[in-house]
Amino acid sequence: MTASKAFYTSPTSAKAAQQGLGGAQGAVLVVAALVVVGVATAGVLSTGSGETLSQVQDAAKVTDSLSTIADRLAASL
C-alpha cells in the first residue's frame, strides 16, 4: 500500500528549488519585502505618538487595577 503524497511536484517547482531565488525572482522578493517594511513603518509613523509605557507607569497609581491600566493603554493606541 502506498501512502498518498501531501504535495505534487512540477517541473517549474523542481527548477525553482534547484536554482534558488537568484536573478529576477530574487529581486522581486527583495523589493516585495522592502515594500512591506516600508508600509509598516509608514503606518507606525502616521499614527502619531501615543502614550509610552513609562508615561503609563508614571501616571498609574498603586491602587489602579490592571483593567484600568489596560483601558488607558487601549485608549492611547
Overview of the structural elements:
This protein has a domain at about 50-75. The chain is about 65% helix and about 0% strand. It contains four helices and no strands. The chain is elongated, with a radius of gyration of 25 Å. Keywords: Membrane, Transmembrane, Transmembrane helix.
In short:
The chain is about 65% helix and about 0% strand.
Continuous helix count: 4
Major β-sheet annotation: none
- Strand composition percent: under 5%
Element-by-element helix/strand order: HHHH
Helix content: 55-70%
Radius of gyration: 25 Å
Q: Termini distance? A: 57 Å
Average pLDDT number = 78
Secondary structure tally: strands? 0
Structural class: mainly alpha
Choose one word for the global shape. elongated
| pLDDT < 50 stretches | none
Keywords: Membrane, Transmembrane, Transmembrane helix
Transmembrane segments: 21-45
Overview features:
4 helices; 0% strand; mainly alpha; 77 residues
Topology (elements, then pairings):
Layout: H1 11-19, H2 23-46, H3 53-59, H4 66-76
Keywords: Membrane, Transmembrane, Transmembrane helix
Transmembrane segments: 21-45
